[in-house]
Write a structure and sequence with these properties.
The chain is an alpha+beta fold. Helix content is about 30%, strand content about 25%. The longest helix has 19 residues. Bound molecules: N-oxalylglycine and zinc ion (2 copies).
């Protein structure tokens, strides 16, 4: 790389051939200093409070080192920070760079969803690359199907605790999805279930749900899956005002049982600061009464009905049958699931489910990627340390690749 570097008192400008100039504010650069006085050398955590930095911070001088690193001397305290060009490149703050760093979901429906993300459990436990491939596909689609796990009770916990950390709730660490005589939840009957997110009445709502199949002889009981992000995208196109209302008005979800009285308030659709869709929670069974200004009730119900209409369109829905040993892993605020009715008098159907926090699966994928990269010789510092220098040829190769 041969970027041109220039500076003013409060910012550093990097100009790379063929690309727009990009600016880094002084306070941001200083807050990324990794010297041993600023960050703990072992774990990289900050050793100072923001109030410890001089309020009148400015760049006094900038120089290039022989390896191309950028050396900044700060005023008024004379502190020195060194950044590699690669690190500055990876942390570009321009809107294009920030957009390109953001993961985009792969939206799906009936026509493209049948190429569903599938992993083989035996391969996943034996080969980190196979597990990572599954997790990458799960992250892009918001769900994945694991095949060939043991069709024995509690396997769902083994899978949940392998990929992340199982969350214990009032249902226990796992719940049995079977037809019960006196069920506290329609899930424990043979009735069909429209697509939904599980437990939006919890705060926080479970991030990931696993359903593992032990037996599926009963006629019916097919699994339904709909991409909530795709449905919300369609709603945004067809009725932007309805979409907007569902992102702004919170509603209550409620569940009661002998041992639980759960309430949580949230919007049906969540968007982030860029207005990108980041969550869909939908559950007709546990939606509580709408506690909203009277004049907002009709508009909200109209918007809710529109979203439901879209979610129920057959062209959005995947329908498949879980076989014993199959486990579907679903991002609970995106891949909405349901089932068709089944007949328990003509065969058995037994699933076991559990909840896992979303960050556990995100972390698992990053750890696997880091380990695989380390094995390939791509040193971790290339992505996280702004000034460490390569001491191995592997490190240099990685830097040159940028
Ligand atoms: C559930 C559920 C679906 C099924 O238990 O949360 O939605 O296939 N079950 O039984
Ligand atoms: Zn420092
Ligand atoms: Zn469910």
């Amino acid at each position: 790389m041969n970027a041109k570097i220039s500076h003013q008192a409060t910012s550093l400008r990097v100009e790379r051939p063929g690309r727009a100039a990009t600016d880094f504010p002084a306070i941001w650069l200083r807050d990324n200093c990794r010297c041993a006085a600023c960050r703990h050398p072992g774990n990289g955590q900050r050793l100072y409070e923001i109030t410890d930095l001089p309020p009148s911070l400015s760049i006094q001088d900038v120089a290039r080192e022989s390896d191309g690193s950028v050396r900044i001397v700060w005023a008024p305290d004379g502190h020195v920070t060194v950044f590699s060009e690669l690190w500055l490149n990876d942390h570009d703050l321009s809107s294009e760079a920030r957009k390109s760093r953001k993961k985009k979901p792969t939206l799906w429906n009936k026509s493209n969803g049948n190429a569903k993300p599938v992993g083989d459990w035996r391969q996943m436990v034996a080969d980190p690359a196979a597990e990572l491939a599954f997790l990458d596909a799960y992250h892009a689609h918001g769900f994945g199907l694991i095949r060939h796990s043991p069709a024995v009770p509690e396997t769902v916990l083994a899978i949940g605790n392998h990929l992340g950390f199982v969350r214990v709730t009032n249902y226990g660490a796992l719940f049995d999805v079977i037809s019960l005589p006196n069920p506290n939840n329609l899930a424990f009957t043979p009735i069909g279930l429209g697509v939904h997110s599980d437990n939006p009445y919890r705060d926080p709502t479970p991030g990931v749900q696993l359903l593992h199949c032990l037996e599926s002889d009963a006629p019916g009981g097919d699994t339904l899956l709909v991409d909530g992000f795709n449905a919300a995208t369609i709603l945004r196109q067809e009725d932007p005002a309805a979409f907007d209302l569902l992102t702004r008005m919170t509603v209550n979800f409620r569940f009661r049982a002998d041992n639980a009285e759960l309430n949580a308030r949230q919007t049906l659709i969540s968007v982030d600061e860029d207005d990108d869709i980041v969550g869909v929670h939908f559950n007709n069974r546990s939606l509580d009464w709408l506690d909203a200004p009277a004049e907002m009730v009709e508009p909200w119900f109209a918007a809710y009905r529109k979203l439901a209409d879209i979610l129920h369109r057959p062209d959005g829905e995947l329908v498949f049958r879980l076989a014993p040993g199959d486990c579907v892993v679903m991002q609970n605020d995106r891949a909405l699931h349901g089932r068709t009715a089944f007949d328990p008098s003509r065969g058995r159907r037994h699933l076991q489910g559990c909840y896992v926090d979303k960050d556990g699966l995100d972390s698992r994928a990053r750890v696997l990627r880091r380990r695989l990269n380390e094995k390939k010789g791509v040193a971790a510092w290339t992505r996280c340390a702004p000034f460490a220098r390569p001491s191995t040829s592997a490190g240099r190769t990685a830097m040159a690749k940028g």
